[in-house]
Specification:
It is built from 13 helices and twelve strands. The termini are far apart. A seven-stranded mixed beta sheet has the order 1-7-6-5-4-2-3, sandwiched between helices. Strands 8-9-12-11-10 form a five-stranded mixed beta sheet. It is globular and about 75 Å long. It folds into two domains: about 10-85 and about 155-250, Type I PLP-dependent aspartate aminotransferase-like (Major domain) (Aspartate Aminotransferase, domain 2); about 250-380, Alpha-Beta Complex (Aspartate Aminotransferase, domain 1), CATH 3.90.1150.10. It is α/β, with parallel strands linked by helices.
Amino acid sequence: MKLGRDARFSTICLHAGQEPDQATGAIVTPIYQTSTYVQEALGRHKGYEYARTQNPTRSALEGNIAAMESGTTACAFASGMAAINAVATMLQAGDHAVVSDNVYGGTFRLFDKVLSRYQLSFAYVDTADLAATERAFTPATRLLFVETPSNPVMRITDLGEAASLAHRHGARLVVDNTFASPAIQRPIELGADLVMHSTTKYLNGHSDSVGGVVVATRDEDAAWLKFVQNAAGAILSPFDSWLVLRGTKTLPLRMAVHSANGLALAEMLAGHPKVRHVLYPGLPSHPQHALARRQMRGFGGMLAFDLGSLEAARRLLNAVHLMSLAESLGGVETLISHPATMTHASVPADRRAALGITDGLVRISAGIEDIDDLKEDLHQALDNV
């Protein structure tokens, strides 16, 4: 089935990268669970030689996500961190990267504790402040790595302006689009050069797969990422590729409910006397609400709120019934977590404090349950604070 050039997003999610199986006509891409491929004769094969290098199920997913993000090529990896690490291999010894100060704790750990050992340097800055971001650039800067909305304090970076800034300095703009998903935000359409996701989250959407993907726009970047994918071998398995393909089919439908529930919970919490403040770009009180309205198609299901102390946060987290206390995000079920001791525990305490990741901060990934049930659960949990 061929997509028209003007196919719309929901249609792309369902069909891009996927053709009926040539052998059987199966409408769902099969799981090609094989390690190798028999060659017809020496030097003659059907385009597949070894499963680390090529796999039809993974190729279908890569084509699907590349189309969703308006890129040219996608490479799927074993985790979101493997995807970020693949992007980092574009740097050479002596290179410098400017990074959003409020990135996921695992991203900070990779850059600060691992890659800094190999003559790479990183500057962390609030990329929502473009003047401060530009001041962080040096002649050696090759990447501007942005997370927007940021995890967990929900800062928004102007992607069009960030792309212009990076390109003026001869750098590439890399965007971690995990929190938004391409249903809500498509950074390449705003000028980004590379977009990555933890497919574990919204793209998969069912909390049953771990993976990552990088989408490229430049031929030389795509060629390098494919080389690294094969050379380093941190590939997404056929079964995980199939699980994510199942998830992307319903992404637009799920994201509409995630966004509606996220906004409803944010509004409820904003009016609760025990909540100090709520961080959600869909609230008019968010300092970058107008920017979020311009560059996002909805506001997503991620929000955070501050209860003022670790003890207050502990009481609430231990009292929820319907929401699940767990790391990760983007699944159909609502997850609730404590960033300071969970997702961002690897960030030093003084950095967490400077970023606003307080001991009283609680993060919610709003699922697609009935909103009244979610509200009731939060209300009864807040009664214990």
